[in-house]
Specification:
With about 400 residues, the chain is α+β, with helices and mostly antiparallel strands. It has three domains: about 90 residues, 3-Layer(aba) Sandwich (Rossmann fold), CATH 3.40.50; about 60 residues, Dna Ligase, domain 1; about 210 residues, D-amino Acid Aminotransferase, Chain A, domain 1 (2-Layer Sandwich). The protein is built from eleven helices and 20 strands. Strands 11-12-15-19-17 form a five-stranded antiparallel sheet. Strands 3-2-1-4 form a four-stranded parallel sheet, sandwiched between helices. Helix 1 crosses helix 10 and helix 2 crosses helix 3. The radius of gyration is 20 Å and the shape is globular.
Length: about 400
């Protein structure tokens, strides 16, 4: 019988997962409360249900007699997917309680602290007045963010007390559950990393680190604007972080997963795991790693989650120097075209534009405001660094 895979969400980052599932012969059901989302046009069936309502998702999953469920690239659905996996005895990310820890920034920081990981000072809040009352306990700068939002929505760096209230209000506005977290801002050496890795039966099989880059002129300068591989970490720093990631997933009892992992090295020399969530990252990170290494975590995860054997995943080197640019507008308006300099020193492997001329676009406040991606391959690292550090010198997004 044809196996049924339920995917929570409907964003375009699900398209390669749907493609991989169809290549394996699976029947794909997509589910969320927005019937016009793009992924529903490519699935075999759409179900209208809130992906944050775990009991409603469980009810539908039982009715559809699914063989597996995940929330690839869709952060709000991860907890519901884990709940259904565990309730129905399906292949799972790991224990439901562990997934809840990973999906909540407040609980995650507490877990890291309890088990002796490097972790910034942090405190969670469910009321704005309590967060503001604690204004004097922090050594500024600090970061204020929702505990349960993805795509850098609701995130603000606060450099002094006068900025705190606005940041707290913004974080609560973007929080799904009405909880935020405040933590010390870790000044970083080089670039932070936000990329995907893979474990099988709780053992890391593929680990990657990248250089995460930002547009300081964007509406939200903490929304990633580009990624490049390899990272700016030393081999020793990468080895330390790999060991700590393995220790973390072992402590939590995690199983076979794609993980989106954010790490950084502070100016104090300490490497930190900032976030680790059992889902593929947005911004096409698994696809980028497939380009750069040939490792196909999408197909592996798709097969595992419906109970089929996982193709071999092994650590592989990068085939050259790779970068992804997240196309975005500096201001809201009508899209009027994309210009790439003819003198640009890289191979444009893929140009994936999601808007047409005349379409309304927003300024870059969160990952959902992206208008496309560029996949780039460079022959030399210095050329890549120069290009990614100076995107405006060769790329122009025209807005009317």
């Amino acid at each position: 019988m044809q196996k049924k895979l339920m995917l929570l969400g409907g964003i375009r980052y699900l398209l390669p997962v749907i493609k991989a599932a169809h290549e394996q012969g699976y029947y794909v059901i997509t589910a969320d409360y927005l019937p016009d989302n793009i992924a529903h046009k490519f699935s075999d069936e759409y179900v209208n249900v809130s992906i944050v309502d775990k009991e409603a998702v469980l009810k539908v999953a039982k009715e559809k007699q699914i063989d597996g469920i995940m929330s690839f690239g869709v952060d709000p659905g991860v907890v519901s997917a884990s709940y259904v996996q565990n309730q129905m005895g399906l292949p799972s990310f790991g224990p439901y309680e562990s997934v809840k820890i990973l999906q909540n920034k407040d609980k995650f920081r507490d877990f890291l602290t309890k088990h002796g990981f490097n972790v910034p000072k942090a405190k969670g809040y469910s009321r704005a007045e309590d967060a503001i009352a604690d204004a004097t306990i922090w050594d500024y700068p600090i970061i204020v963010k929702p505990t349960d939002a993805a795509g850098s929505k609701g995130v603000t760096r606060v450099d002094d007390v006068a900025q705190l209230k606005a940041a707290v209000d913004y974080a609560f506005e973007k929080s799904i559950s009405g909880h935020i977290i405040i933590e010390d801002f870790i000044e970083k050496q080089g670039c932070s990393s936000d990329t995907d890795s893979f474990s099988e039966d709780g053992k890391l099989k593929f680990v990657s680190f990248c250089a995460q880059r930002f547009d300081l002129n964007a509406t939200n300068p903490y929304t990633p604007a580009a990624y490049s591989w390899p990272s700016t970490f030393t081999k020793e720093q990468e080895a330390y972080l790999t060991g700590e990631i393995q220790r973390l997933i072992t402590l939590l009892g995690m199983k076979t997963n794609v993980y989106n992992i954010e790490t950084r090295v502070g100016t104090n020399g300490k490497p930190y795991i900032m976030e680790l969530t059992p889902r593929g990252g947005g911004n096409r990170l698994c696809e980028m790693l497939r380009y750069a290494t040939g490792v196909d975590m999408i197909t592996a995860m798709t097969r595992y989650i419906v109970g089929d054997s996982v193709p071999e995943i092994t650590q592989k080197p990068y085939n050259g120097h790779w970068a992804e640019v997240i196309l975005h507008a500096e201001k809201a308006g009508a899209f009027d075209g994309l210009e790439i300099s003819k003198a640009f020193p890289a191979e444009v492997v893929e140009e994936d534009l999601w808007v047409s001329k005349g379409d309304r676009v927003n300024s870059f406040e969160g990952a959902n405001d992206a208008i496309g991606t560029l996949v780039l391959k460079f022959e030399r690292e210095d050329e890549m660094v120069e290009a990614i550090d100076n995107i405006s010198s060769w790329l122009k997004v025209n807005i009317l």
